[in-house]
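Before surveying the methods themselves, it helps to consider a single example record, giving the amino acid sequence and backbone structure tokens:
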Amino acid sequence: MVAAIDQVKKTLILGAYGMLGSALQKVFPNAELRGHDLDITEGDKVTSLIRELNPGLVINAAAYTDVDGCEDNRDLALAVNGESLVQIAQACNACGSCLIHFSTDYVFDGTKKVYDENEKPHAINTYGKSKLLGEINIQKNMTNYRIIRTSWLFGKNGRNFVDTMIRLSAEMPWVSVVNDQFGKPTYTVDLARKTKEIAGLDPGIYHITNEGICSWFEFAQAIIPNAIPCSTSEFPRKAKRPAYSGLANTKTKPMRHWRNALNNYLEKRKL
């Protein structure tokens, strides 16, 4: 089925120059690319672009991902992550395009340790609520979609936990990191490669992460030598985070363990 994706009329990547979008460019080298030159909240422009290109596949990697910033800018978060998907989905549906959209583990509340694709979402912060709205708007307006929920992304060309830890480690003797929030780190390179496979599978929701659950502290320990644990209560943030947000992949072959992916990324950072 993946071979059929290689033969689609055209691929359009929205948000093509962010951390994930940059990785997707490597996997879809002939795709049409749109970044800051296209505001996805401007529905008429998005609709016109999709109608003009008439793509077989649209990949939406555009998002407002500042979790704490979403608390301060609720309307913007809902517009970018949620409401914009009405026009995108309707335009894709009208052209017969397949839509791949990326969502988040933060659509869940963290009261369970692991969530599969059939679990009912319940977001506890604005970012999660805005991404859940996007999922709902896609499902209301088209059928040929693939919603990929993922988590804890790291990779080139964007702000991420790995690079932040390395910077802080050089600036201070100890770096405090919460040890009571658990999830699955995901390398953008692996996620981008998996996206091509998902495009050839049946419509629906997919949970795609690197394997292995860890706390943010355990993740930090694998990156820097001077991380020390603290509790969420000792490190308050504007947005409430789920204590557990492990995504269970029940539909596809699992990706490699996050430690292997992290080592690969750290090696490439040195080049």
